[in-house]
């Protein structure tokens, strides 16, 4: 039922009112993102982040609010999507129910600083693991492998088949993102227009201000699903974007705990179920093989 409502909302409205999070009287199980069972009687070593979070009974999670399938806030401000459900699985393992998660919108450029300043306990936000970011924060995961792709106007009037065709074109991406950096570094003949969130790039493509939008394929797929008559995906990914969960640098115990939780979800099917309910419901694709966690 949740799948149907979610997919129908995306397909019917174009602008995505994925809201089914305010049902009163949900069981603990329902409330935890459609499946995650909230652990009871949890106990963690004193002084660890896990012990602190379990004791407080709440966790603050940074995620995207405008990315259908991964993190999309409904009218009540509560987000839904694959990233949201991954966060819910981790919270559940700490004994924290979905209703007790505090969601904070993080955009691409402020994720590291939000973690460093303690504004959030973790970031689950289509967040590519890379060495530059690892200087500032640490990553658990990956829990998904995306790739950079291009979205163009329906019918692809300019015949853009890959990043080389962006030379001389105006392409939109987001400040502080790896796709923006990729264009700046490797495709300098493209003109880059930057916003803070991808939904503004979609608007710019819609009104002809830019010729293309570039970011991860799964983000673009969510945008195309909302406006299939207006946009299309080129479908030729040209980078690797392993998605990790950002946490405070040096918190190795928390990182191991999240990695253990991810691996358990890969094995017991809850990761695949989360995919099917969210991103998979938009793309119409089965959950892929889960990636291998990198315990660096
Ligand atoms: N995964 C890429 C990144 O972390 C692009 C998506 C995003 O901006 O969130 O920068």
UniProtKB/TrEMBL annotation:
Family per record: Belongs to the bacterial solute-binding protein 3 family.
Location of the Solute-binding protein family 3/N-terminal domain: 58-282
Domain of life, source organism: Bacteria
Keyword GTP-binding tagged: no
UniProt KW keywords: Signal, Transport
InterPro entries named among the record's database cross-references: Bact_solute-bind_prot3, SBP_3_CS, Solute-binding_3/MltF_N
Presence of keyword Cell membrane: no
Cellular component annotations (GO), alphabetically ordered: extracellular region; outer membrane-bounded periplasmic space
Signal peptide as annotated in the record: 1-18
GO biological process: amino acid transport
Name of the protein in its database record: ABC transporter substrate-binding protein
Pfam families documented for this protein: SBP_bac_3 (PF00497)
Phylogenetic lineage: Bacteria, Bacillati, Actinomycetota, Actinomycetes, Geodermatophilales
């Amino acid at each position: 039922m949740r799948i149907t409502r979610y997919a129908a909302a995306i397909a019917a409205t174009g602008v995505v009112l994925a809201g089914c999070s305010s049902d009163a009287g949900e069981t603990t199980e329902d409330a935890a993102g459609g499946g995650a069972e909230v652990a009871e009687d949890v106990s963690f070593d004193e002084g660890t982040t896990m012990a602190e979070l379990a004791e407080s009974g709440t966790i603050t999670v940074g995620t995207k609010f405008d990315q259908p399938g991964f993190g999309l806030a409904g009218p009540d401000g509560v987000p839904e999507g694959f990233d949201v459900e991954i966060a819910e699985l981790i919270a559940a393992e700490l004994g924290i129910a979905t209703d007790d998660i505090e969601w904070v919108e993080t955009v691409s450029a402020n994720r590291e600083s939000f973690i460093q300043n303690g504004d959030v306990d973790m970031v689950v936000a289509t967040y590519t693991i890379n060495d530059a970011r690892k200087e500032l924060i640490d990553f658990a995961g990956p829990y998904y492998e995306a790739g950079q792709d291009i979205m163009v106007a329906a019918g692809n009037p300019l015949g853009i088949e890959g990043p080389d065709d962006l030379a001389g074109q105006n392409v939109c991406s987001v400040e502080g993102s790896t796709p923006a950096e990729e264009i700046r570094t490797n495709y300098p003949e493209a003109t880059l227009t930057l916003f803070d969130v991808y939904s503004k790039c979609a608007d710019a493509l819609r009104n002809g201000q830019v010729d293309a939008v570039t970011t991860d394929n799964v983000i673009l797929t969510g945008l195309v699903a909302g406006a299939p008559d207006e946009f299309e995906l080129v479908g030729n990914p040209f980078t690797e974007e392993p998605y990790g969960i950002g946490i405070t640098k040096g918190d190795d115990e928390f990182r191991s705990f999240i990695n253990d939780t991810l691996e358990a979800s890969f094995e017991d099917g809850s990761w695949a179920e989360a995919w099917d309910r969210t991103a998979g419901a938009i793309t119409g694709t089965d959950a892929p093989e889960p990636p291998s966690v990198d315990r660096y």
